[in-house]
Amino acid sequence: MKKSCLLATVAVALVELALLASPARAQQPPVRPSAGPGIALVDVSYIFKHHPRFKAQEEEIKADAERAQMEFKRVNDAIAKDAERLNEFRPGTPDYKAAEEDIVNRRMKLQGSVQLQKKEFMQRDAKIYYNVYTEIMQEVQYYCQANAVSLVLDFNGDAINPDNPGEVARGLQRQVIYYNKDLDITPYILKRLGTPPANPGPVGFQQQQPSPNGLR
Fold first, then answer.
1. Sign of CA dihedral 92, 93, 97, 99
2. Between helices 52-84 and 94-147, what is the axis angle to 10°?
């Protein structure tokens, strides 16, 4: 009987030693929660930079602005040339006053045209931004409805240049400081809008069906 009790005691001790030596009893790192489909991230700025039609429309505005600037310069040079001819008239004479008044009126008209043209370009640019942003939001909404996503955050995934104080300052103000890359739906949205990024990443959620709203 004493021998049996001794063997049992030894067995229990061996089991306890085995448990203490087991890796399962060692300090384990905290378990990372799985990336569920309820939250997603999208880099709207990146999409604007790589959106093909947005870039084409911006280039069109830029070309129109350059042509308008050249025309304004031509008119301004003509006014300046006529202003030099004022020396051909004696100050105070009717001809001098008429020429001077004509130059002043033309300069005022030119300034007004420049301001109106500038306003037109700003309105065109704002409309382009609005249309593309609306298109992005439509695709994000479709994605969320198809994947049961409840919240989408805009974030900036660009790397920070430590030699650029401005970039460092903006980086310190980022709202998203860490994220699971599977939550980034930017590549999917950009691909739906017409062109994939250079290195598209995984969407991370279920496979998509064609958009019911007719967008690509």
1. negative
2. 170
Q: If one looks up domain 35-192 in CATH, what number appears? A: 3.30.910.20
Can you give the pLDDT at residue 23?
A: 40
pLDDT in tens, 101-144: 999 999 999 999 999 999 999 999 999 999 999 999 999 999 99
What are the boundaries of each domain within the chain?
35-192
pLDDT over 50 at 6, yes or no = no
How big is the chain by its Cα radius of gyration, in Å? Answer: 35
Instruction: Please name the residue ranges forming H helices in the chain.
Output: 2-21, 44-50, 52-84, 94-147, 165-172, 186-192
**How far apart are the C-alpha atoms of 200 and 188, rounded to whole Å?**
8
50: left (phi over 0), alpha (psi -120 to 50) or beta: alpha
